[in-house]
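Handout, section 3.2

Students often ask what a structure token actually looks like in practice. Rather than define it abstractly, here is a full record for Sugar ABC transporter permease. The first block is the sequence as you would receive it.
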Amino acid sequence: MLTRTPWLTWLFIAPALLIIAVLMYYPMVGTVIESFYSTSFINPNPRFVGLEVYRAVFGDGAFGRIVLNSILWTVGVVFLQNLLGFLAALLLNQRLPGQALMRSLVLLPWVLPGVVAAILWRFMYDPQLGLINSFLISLGGHGIPWLADASTALASTIIAAVWKGFPFSTVVYLAALQNVDEEQIEAAIIDGAGAVRRLFDIVIPAVKEIIAINLVLTAILTFNYFDMIWVLTRGGPQNATHIFPTKIYELGFGQFRFGEAATYGVVSILLLGVLIPLYFLIQARGRRVEA
């Protein structure tokens, strides 16, 4: 019946399309329009300047640093989070004593609110009372200002974000591993294949679609991750940890430079525009393979 009356199909999905348009696309269009206006705390009235805001942002030395930080942050967190999550899933997929308890405990970092996790790591990185420096001093070393030194701040935030996010990848990969054909694994064992050979010849090929989707999904989520960096460093020191979300927040809500904040938002949307179609492409390819 629906094929004969396509207007009825559009009638049913119209409420959902309206909600998506109001909550997602209207703010996005508003952001693009805002990027052509100049505003400041002293002069809050928007003034149309065309591409002048883009020229100012691209000409600022901080822009290149923020782009580089965003790339390093996203690649570092995604790679380590997926690697650690996959290894944890392999371990939790084995028949071990206390398996249910371990599966529950591994979720603790994930269920913590991002702000709480960031505060926890901020205490651990404290140069005077932090657990990490206390451990280094007990070994005969010296304390390191992890979050106050530009050479270590970004790496420190990446480690904290990996700890917070790897349980998500663990859950995804654990579900995928439980669908791997046990008969193929048993046949490989009979043929004398070792654990490493079974991993690369059977397990990984069986879950490669899930790995690809999770890589893209975690990249999108990580690129937009705000809580951890803002609570730990607020983008400092000297822009060493500023990424697009923190810079947008600082410009828009800290300095009331909404035009520049909108410009950074437009650039971040364009960068994410590469990942989002890739995510849907992998999903569509997976559905074609299953069919």
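Discussion prompt for tutorial groups: Residues 150 and 240 are 5 Å apart (CA to CA). How would you have guessed this from the sequence alone?
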